[in-house]
Design brief:
about 20% helix, about 80 residues, alpha+beta, 2 helices, globular
C-alpha cells in the first residue's frame, strides 16, 4: 500500500494481507488507547498485515505478532 501526505487515513481494519501501513493516530477511550500504545501502536510505527479476515487481523509491529479484533483495529488510523 502506498502512503504519503496526500493519502487519507484509514482504519487498520481495512488494510489487506501483505500491506505495510504507518500508524497516524489511535482513537477511542483512554484505556483502549493506552493498551494499544503499550503494544506499539503509536504514531509513526510501521505495521505489516500478515492476514486479514472479516472479523480479525493479524499484524506484525516492532517485531511482535498480534491478532486484533476488527473492532479494535478500527481504532488504529493508518496511511
Amino acid at each position: 500500500m502506498m502512503s504519503g501526505p496526500h493519502m487519507p487515513a484509514m482504519p487498520l481494519s481495512l488494510a489487506h494481507s501483505g500491506d505495510t501501513v504507518t500508524v497516524t493516530r489511535v482513537r477511542g477511550g483512554e484505556d483502549l488507547k493506552h493498551h494499544l500504545e503499550n503494544l506499539g501502536f503509536v504514531e509513526g510505527s510501521e505495521v505489516h498485515v500478515v492476514a486479514s479476515s472479516g472479523s480479525n487481523i493479524i499484524v506484525t509491529i516492532k517485531g511482535a505478532r498480534f491478532g486484533l479484533d476488527s473492532k479494535v483495529a478500527s481504532h488504529v488510523m493508518t496511511v
